[in-house]
Structure prediction request, 405 residues.
Amino acid sequence: MQYNLLEYGNYNSGFADCYETNNNTQRKDECIRALLDYVQPDIFTVCEFGATQALLTDFLRHNLNINGVNYWQSDNIVNYAGSNIINHIFYDSRKVGLSKHVALRTNPRDTDIYELYLKTASLAAGDTIKLVCIVAHPKAGQGYEASRRALMQTAMDYVNQHYPTDNVLIMGDFNMYGASESGYRLLTQTYSNPSICFMDPVGSAGVGEWNNNSQYASFHTQSTRSYSEDCFSGGGLDDRFDFILMADEIAFSYNHMRYVQGSYRAIGNDGNHFNMSVDQGYNSSVPAELAEALYDASDHLPVTMKITVDVHLGVEEDEVQSLFATVAPNPATDFAKVGFFNPTEGHIQFELYSLQGQLVTQASEHFASGSQQFDLNLQDLPNGFYMLRMTHESGLRQTVKVVVK
Prediction:
């Protein structure tokens, strides 16, 4: 779950007029506890968290490690930018551990990269499943598109260098007004980063010019109030600022993690509150008391998604390298050669999928055992990212990335 907590613990320290009277931390804690009880996340990332260690300690004690629970953990604050508000992460230490936290110096706030590992029975044998969570909060407002893109470029450069084939999520309050923004296109298209491509879990239905556009009412996350009240922005739900985007490794389950289709959700958005307060009238997506809590806690809605994990590491590792397939050239234009090692004579099915999961083309051929090649026809395909799934008649299979330019 990702949530912008709206100047949590800060009183009149930012651009907004946030005071104890209109943004009371005690009341926010009540709302956050209700939300956590409703969602029950394993990983909880936040934006606009007050940049003090004491506040972090209190947040854990008051909202997470309560009622006999003692397994929620976080990391020490890193704040190179010296901002009053920061990003942060909380996680269920029974399920995941934190192996690394890197803060990238970006404007106006640091971008935080958290490298997590899953705690499984296989850890004793040295096997790990890695999940990298990038939490970003670029500058708000129209006219700052270049600043937002620059922040995302810094994050993409780091991922390209350190995590090009890992399970990566990038989340946060992106403050982007539509899919045409260069920062969003940088994340989700392959024109400048062919090794990395983040996918939007909502698919094409939620991707477009969502600012004040009722066509995207089901995906808006800001604002929870129809009228402005000092600290809280107004206007009702009319913008999609809050995101969790996933690398293709998670979308296509390369590294033991897979996105659960249809699980992405903006908590409190029932699609019927365009330009309305989230608690106005009947909200069919959440109980009335939670709609009220979302109204009081922040001017953003939290977003959530589910990821399923395959902990049978030995089996999956065999499958990932079962055919030792490579594609060259890659990126390619009209044709590419798929080289692979066929363990036993038999038929192999080739299926090429778009990032949206649509089957683009397929073929089946019989191959002798040993090193083999297959000519992959890419003519007339739009530029972009594709997945080639190869399945041997014995059940062995492998999926490889293909970039068409």
The first strand starts at residue 2 and ends at 8. Confidence is low (pLDDT under 50) at residues 312-320. DSSP finds seven helices and 21 strands in the chain. The domain at 321-404 is CATH 2.60.40.1930 (Immunoglobulin-like).
